[in-house]
TrEMBL record:
<comment type="similarity">
    <text>Belongs to the cytochrome P450 family.</text>
</comment>
<keyword id="KW-0812">Transmembrane</keyword>
<keyword id="KW-0479">Metal-binding</keyword>
<dbReference type="InterPro" id="IPR001128">
    <property type="entry name" value="Cyt_P450"/>
</dbReference>
<keyword id="KW-1133">Transmembrane helix</keyword>
<dbReference type="GO" id="GO:0016705">
    <property type="term" value="F:oxidoreductase activity, acting on paired donors, with incorporation or reduction of molecular oxygen"/>
</dbReference>
<dbReference type="InterPro" id="IPR050196">
    <property type="entry name" value="Cytochrome_P450_Monoox"/>
</dbReference>
<dbReference type="GO" id="GO:0004497">
    <property type="term" value="F:monooxygenase activity"/>
</dbReference>
<dbReference type="GO" id="GO:0020037">
    <property type="term" value="F:heme binding"/>
</dbReference>
<dbReference type="InterPro" id="IPR017972">
    <property type="entry name" value="Cyt_P450_CS"/>
</dbReference>
<keyword id="KW-0349">Heme</keyword>
<protein>
    <recommendedName>
        <fullName>Cytochrome P450</fullName>
    </recommendedName>
</protein>
<dbReference type="GO" id="GO:0005506">
    <property type="term" value="F:iron ion binding"/>
</dbReference>
<keyword id="KW-0472">Membrane</keyword>
<keyword id="KW-0408">Iron</keyword>
<dbReference type="InterPro" id="IPR002401">
    <property type="entry name" value="Cyt_P450_E_grp-I"/>
</dbReference>
<dbReference type="Pfam" id="PF00067">
    <property type="entry name" value="p450"/>
</dbReference>
């Protein structure tokens, strides 16, 4: 039997009505939970789209929390997000075995990174985390300081010649070269090769993910199908371009290892995966994991170091204290070694305060795979619990006068007074950032070498003047006003 267009349309409409009815029926526990909290009007299929469609992810969280307060509800289609800055909830969510999975927000990254450490769940994640942790021991990280320093020397020339260039891209090239030096033993020279657009392409991917996350079709269709349509075809080309670049790096390393095997105590996770003789690590897995780590290190450290430079410009008195400590503890021209970094106590406190006021990752999302008791309430199964890092870090309940920039908040006696869950730049719990100590060492080196060589200035007079945006990580919405003046 051939259906007429009207009959076919009626059939499709009927199937949609049945699907919506079944979906809403299954959502009853979550709908009952959500009634206890403020939220925008929920529409079947659309969720809160009619309210949120003009906002990027940063504005969603910033404006939503201002308009509704916390905790509150957000609906992306029929995916429910419970936004909170309550430390009791945060502690449970970051440590409960049934919330080890990342939220649905991260599903769009699968097209880029596949089944990588960031996206897998359960026992698979535990096995991968255990494997990769061996490459981030303190002894191995200490050995990376030399690479950070050597690349920071190149960075000094790049900053001198950057003019009005985007500081985020400049710092991104530095962090990528440092990462490859550290884990591959080879420098790919992005800092001196303006033709390589790896950093810019990563920006494009973030923008695509952020812009498409709030489109209703993305609530229900796989990201791969969405990418076949409309502007997604360009993103598929970008993903392929990036993967081809990473593949060339991996292939070069394989050839190098075949000719010059690395001794066991020098092996990084890349070396181990590539030296595998039991086929435990297929080529696609090696590529995905390297792509993830390279991108994560490049993006988060580049963004953090960039707004650290902006903050140094905003607060010249603090910049001077950092400078004086660096000159006292390291000197003007001495190569930077690991022992030097341990003595930079004020610089370290400045770093921590920078990551408080502008966290690199403004939200942490975990997915509940069962009902989670938290105090007097129970968060239902299948909820995306969204921890608003920005709100936690700027909450006056936890931080007196939160918008005041004060590195001495991180004096040992002040830290001892606070709940540890009010500071989450690297998250906490089992699924915290595996590269935390790598990032801190890299940041210390780049701050020390840049500040002892340049005085940093900006037109901005306060943090509030810096326009921010976030898709996945936080950065300035436009190329910020920033100038590097050589010191005598």
């Amino acid at each position: 039997m051939i259906l007429t267009p009207i009959e076919f349309g009626a059939l499709v409409l009927g199937l949609i009505v049945i699907w919506v009815s079944i979906s809403l029926y299954r959502l009853r526990p979550i709908l009952n939970f959500a009634k206890n909290y403020k939220g925008y009007k929920f529409y079947p299929v659309l969720g809160n789209y009619l309210t949120l469609w003009k906002r990027d992810l940063y504005k969603v969280h910033l404006q939503t929390t201002k308009e509704l307060g916390l905790p509150c509800n957000l609906w992306f289609g029929h995916n429910y997000y419970y936004l909170t800055d309550d430390l009791d909830v945060i502690k449970v969510i970051l440590n409960h075995p049934a919330t080890i999975d990342k939220g649905k927000l991260y599903d769009q990254l699968e097209i880029v990174f596949g089944d990588c450490l960031l996206l897998v769940s359960g026992d698979t994640w535990k096995d991968k985390r255990k494997f990769f942790s061996k490459s981030f021991t303190q002894s191995k990280l200490t050995g990376f300081v030399h690479h950070f320093y050597q690349n920071s020397i190149v960075l000094l020339d790049c900053l001198k010649n950057s003019g009005d260039g985007d500081i985020f891209h400049v710092m991104g090239r530095y962090t990528f070269d440092s990462f490859c030096d550290s884990f591959l033993g080879k420098n790919y020279g992005l800092q001196t090769n303006a033709k390589n657009k790896f950093i810019e392409r990563i920006d494009e991917l973030q923008a695509f993910a952020g812009n498409h996350f709030l489109i209703p079709v993305s609530f229900y269709l796989p990201i791969r199908l969405i990418c076949i349509l409309g502007s997604g075809t360009r993103i598929l080309k970008t993903v392929n371009e990036l993967k081809q670049f990473i593949k060339r790096i991996i292939d070069n390393k394989k050839d190098e290892l075949a000719q010059n095997p690395v001794v066991d105590n020098q092996l990084s996770f890349v070396d181990i995966m590539m030296s595998d003789n039991q086929n435990l690590f297929p080529p696609e897995m090696i590529q995905n994991e390297f792509f993830l780590f390279a991108t994560a290190a490049t993006d988060t450290i580049a963004n953090t170091s960039s707004y650290i430079m902006i903050l140094l410009g905003i607060y010249p008195d603090i910049q001077e204290k950092v400078y004086e400590e660096i000159i006292t503890e390291i000197g003007k021209d001495k190569p930077i070694v690991p022992e030097d970094l341990n003595r930079l106590k004020y610089t370290e406190r400045f770093m921590y305060e920078s990551m408080r006021i502008i966290p690199a990752v403004p939200i942490i999302v975990r997915y509940t795979t069962e009902d989670i008791p938290v105090g007097s309430k129970v968060i239902p199964k299948d909820v995306n619990v969204s921890i608003s890092t920005m709100n936690v870090h700027r909450n006056e309940k936890y931080w007196p006068n939160p918008m005041k920039f004060d590195p001495d908040r991180f004096l040992p006696e002040e830290v001892a007074k606070r709940n540890p869950y009010c500071y989450l730049p690297f998250s906490l719990g089992a699924r915290n950032c595996i590269g935390k100590n790598y990032a801190l060492l890299s940041l210390k080196v780049v701050i020390a070498n840049v500040v002892r060589n340049y005085k940093i200035t900006t037109k901005y007079k306060s943090i509030e003047e810096v326009p921010l945006r976030s898709y996945i990580t936080m950065r300035a919405a436009i190329s910020p006003d920033l100038h590097f003046v050589p010191r005598n």
